[in-house]
Design goal:
By secondary structure, this protein is α+β, with helices and mostly antiparallel strands. The chain is built from five helices and five strands; from the N terminus they run H-E-H-H-E-E-H-E-H-E.
């Protein structure tokens, strides 16, 4: 699995990593109104634009339906290796993906900063919970897992 390999690379290099789950908002409505070919084209165009923006610093993979997973290695932004600053830059990159969804559509993004210890499934669960919080807050936004309060 590419995510697992990306996290292992980060463990070896000490790189800050953000794992994001992206979901095209109201995709079913778009797909139903315009047809499956248009829906597929929307996803392909969004994915191409997202991958171009992420570049070689990460990877993007379809995770089923209209959801994608992005892993972003955050480059050191200064010589003090301030990981909060590195993560902040990475969050800006990921938040910028929202503007790249074509045809006036939007997306929601949940992001988890890998803690250096958890496995890929645990990090993905945190990002997925953040995505659901983004949806709950009204869509077309990025929510970081650290902002999510566990609901009882």
């Amino acid at each position: 699995m590419q995510v697992r390999a990306g996290l292992e690379h980060a463990r070896r290099t000490g790189t800050t990593v953000l794992l994001a789950v992206l979901d095209v908002d109201h995709f079913k409505r778009y797909n139903d109104a315009r047809g499956h070919a248009a829906g597929d084209a929307l996803l392909q165009q969004a994915a191409a634009a997202w991958q171009e923006r992420i570049g070689s610093a990460g990877l993007l993979a379809r995770w089923g339906g209209e959801e994608f997973v992005a892993l972003l290695h955050c480059p050191d932004t200064d010589t003090d290796t301030d990981t909060d600053t590195d993560a902040g830059h990475g969050l800006q990159v990921l938040d910028g993906l929202r503007a790249l969804v074509p045809h006036g559509q939007t997306c929601s993004i949940g992001v988890a900063r890998w803690d250096g210890e958890e496995d890929d499934a645990a990090c993905l669960r945190r990002a997925d919970r953040a995505l659901y919080e983004a949806k709950h807050q009204g869509r077309d936004r990025l929510v970081a897992a650290e902002q999510v309060q566990v609901r009882s």
